[in-house]
Design brief:
Number of helices: 1
Shape: globular
Structural class: mainly beta
Order of helices and strands: EEHEEE
Distance between the termini: 23 Å
């Protein structure tokens, strides 16, 4: 569960490329955005696509990844433009 903002809504994962939203990992939020809580609702450009920041998760959150700690998360339906 995000420590700031909200999780993805179910409707944000239904239509490919429709919902460009991102949840930041805490380390990325602290490093690149100075832990600014006003990042929620702002646009950030990732791999040439603007994403709206909807949340921040703690570093301990790994989503579905056992061996890696992603720095951010996007809905699966955004895979065609997944940031790298």
């Amino acid at each position: 569960m995000p420590t700031l903002g909200r999780p993805f809504r179910a409707d944000e994962n239904r239509v490919p490329r429709r919902d460009a939203v991102v949840i930041l990992g805490e380390a990325l939020w602290r490093r690149d955005f100075s832990a600014d809580p006003s990042i929620i609702g702002r646009q950030v450009r990732l791999n040439g696509t603007d994403f709206e920041v909807v949340g921040v998760v703690p570093d301990a959150f790994d989503g579905l990844f056992d061996l890696a700690r992603p720095t951010f998360f996007v809905p699966l339906m955004m895979a065609p433009v997944r940031p790298s």
